[in-house]
Design brief:
- The protein has 199 residues and is mainly beta.
- The protein has a single domain, classed as Alpha-Beta Complex (Sulfite Oxidase, Chain A, domain 2), CATH 3.90.420.
- It has 3 helices and 11 strands.
- The longest helix is centred in the first third of the chain and has 4 residues.
- The radius of gyration is 16 Å and the shape is globular.
Amino acid sequence: MGNAQRDPGNRLPPGQTLVTNFPVLSYGPTPRFNPAKWDFRVIGQVEEPLRFTWDEFRKLPISNQVSDFHCVTTWSRFDNRWEGVRIGDLMKLVRLKVDAKFVFLHCDGGYTTNLPLDEFLENDVMLANRHDGKDLEPDHGWPLRLVVPKLYGWKSAKWLRAIEFCATDRRGFWEVRGYHNHGEPWAEERYSFQEDGEE
């Protein structure tokens, strides 16, 4: 999984076209944000579930990073400047149970997606609320989206509300509708039929 050979001189994965704008692709209406009612939870295979209000979440350590973004619909945007909470910093507050092997992400509007735990814990994965020096646009996930630069953009879930740690994998919204369960751009893991024969 994800073992495609990369050309170190080429940042554009196969089948992608470079864009300078930031297209909006969403399923369903953009959720409204109410800071008085919003919360963020860490649940599942953890020793103690966590819940943050908006004010509490904003007190977590803030980091910045620059990364490329690759959408499965064949566009890529280079050098996105994200600001938010690195997963590594969030995990300093989380005590995982030994059975935790996957994450399942819950978002406003009923959207979900899934990731292997080891990829979720990589250094460039972030809970972002700012993009290119400004608060996220509502259509791009305000107030919070996950950013997973090494995978196609549908794994960078918008309007994130909860991280559930799981013992077994289960497919999210697009994964049960024919998208690849992993979604690595350099291997062009776009559709579930490509999973046949994978280990």
